[in-house]
């Protein structure tokens, strides 16, 4: 498997890259020109470009089996940030994927994506724009998957004791999940045909018995 990851310098994106490398996959890590390269990406091909540069992005995606979109607006005084990153950055990525022959695209979104009445929308209508980005992906004609994680935790401790709670769209509203587990779910989804054209919400809990994504989808 060879994948490309946009947003590879982000807290979830670099974990996707790391875990993919750990599975023996080939990875192209796509970063903006000014982004710092996180530690732990040794072995990945680093590409620096602006996502709106579809020609450069198309070249970076050549030969890839899938694209993981792990971009996301960061807290900022720029209230247009979510519009720019979570919505307007989606069409050029989809255009570049089609042009490069990459039919499989996975988007890391957020629980409650698309909702208007939510406290997170105080930060530039972030959930509204995430919902629009999801819709554009679903209408792209590509083989898509949307992963909607709950509150993201940085901790790497006790991961094996955390069972993942999976659900379809708009079934979960709260709870959290470590970013490392989100990365694992993303890669599992790329290997699971039943995850295509699905929105999958994920949180985790020590009280949840471990269930593989493929088994949950089969049930």
Produce the secondary structure layout.
Elements (H helix, E strand, L loop, with lengths): L1 E5 L6 H10 L3 E6 L13 E4 L5 H8 L4 E4 L11 H8 L1 H11 L3 E5 L17 H13 L4 E7 L1 E3 L9 E5 L8 E3 H12 L7 E8 L7 H6 L1
Parallel strand pairs: 1-2, 1-4, 2-3, 4-5, 5-6, 6-10, 7-9
Antiparallel strand pairs: 8-10
Helix pairs in contact: 1-6, 2-4, 3-5
Account of the protein in words:
This protein has 219 residues and is an alpha/beta fold. The chain has a single domain (2-218), classed as 3-Layer(aba) Sandwich (Rossmann fold). It has seven helices and ten strands. The strands form two sheets. An eight-stranded mixed β-sheet has the order 3-2-1-4-5-6-10-8, with helices on both faces. The chain has a two-stranded parallel ribbon with strand order 7-9. It is globular.
In total, the number of strands is 10
Oligomer: single chain
Structural class computed from helices and strand pairing = alpha/beta
Strand order of the largest sheet: 3-2-1-4-5-6-10-8
Instruction: Fill in the CATH topology.
Output: Rossmann fold
**Tally the helices: what do you get?**
7
